[in-house]
Amino acid sequence: MTQTPNTAARRAMRTPGLLLGVVLTVAMIAAALAAPWIAPFDPNEQDVLAILAAPDATHLLGADAFGRDVLSRILWGARISLYVGFLSTLAGVVAGTTVGVVAGYYGGLVDRIVVAATDVLLSFPQLIMGLLLVAVLGASIGNLVLAIAVTAAPAFIRMARGSTLAMRERDFVDACRSLGYSDLRIMFFHILPNILDELVVMASLWLASAIRTESTLAFIGLSVPPPTATWGGIVRDGFDNLLDGPWLALFPSLAILVVMIGLNLIGDGLRDATDPKGAQ
């Protein structure tokens, strides 16, 4: 049974988990975008009188070992963590989908080379691959985006290739060839739209993974250098004072958790909404 876009949209609107995921994710993105206006303090402003201050009316989430407001640093850190996550996932989706569609459509030697390279990349755990690339390239936002995108691309190559292999045997592809359409037009204007729903679902799940990877790399010191705030960096700073101020690591960890839950709910909801079996 084939679902129309309207059917999938109606099913999505009736999925509570998807709606909750959208609310959580949009709220976190909105807070990050509004950080310059809603953050109570400069994220790098130090106050010696507020060192390791517990949450109170002045510092709602407390202050760290340098007297910096934790809430302000979480809000500003969200900008970098979400930016790196979204941009690296987008880059991985575009690059991986392009390579996968081309390999699946043409097959032959091109396909064998792509499959071999993809298998090599997938043999490395995502975090280890990201760590190696950032260690070699150096810690910066651009290198973080590149490293995480490289770890994401192989999964999209595999998915796009497999879906294209199935689609290229369909009657509509033969009809396009008989009409004289170019390979480029067939691949990206006829095959790609038919596999896009699968890629979108996977992208939402990989976005959560990308943000988690960025936070992990920041935790071990392979992200943007301090004092720039990132979620992983804030958690790492909090671990140095875990006994004196457990809130320093708790609150940024909760921010990461909220985004992970939101994005996974979105991915699960989109998968259910676009599953033809679920519409029966």
In words, what does this structure look like?
The protein is 73% helix and 0% strand. The relative contact order is 0.17. The mean pLDDT is 86. By secondary structure, it is mostly helical.
Strand % is under 5%
CATH-wise, what's the superfamily? MetI-like
Percentage of residues assigned to helices: over 70%
Record field, number of beta strands = 0
The number of helices is 11
- What is the class in the CATH system? Mainly Alpha
- What's the alpha carbon Rg, rounded to whole Å? 22 Å
Q: What's the average pLDDT?
A: 86
Could you say which structural class the secondary elements and strand pairing correspond to?
mainly alpha
- What is the name of the CATH topology? MetI-like fold
How is this fold's topology laid out?
Blueprint (H helix, E strand, L loop, with lengths): L4 H9 L2 H18 L1 H4 L31 H37 L1 H15 L3 H12 L3 H27 L3 H8 L4 H37 L11 H9 L7 H28 L6
Structure characteristics:
single chain; mainly alpha; MetI-like fold; 73% helix; elongated
In short:
The protein is mainly alpha-helical. The chain contains 11 helices and no strands.
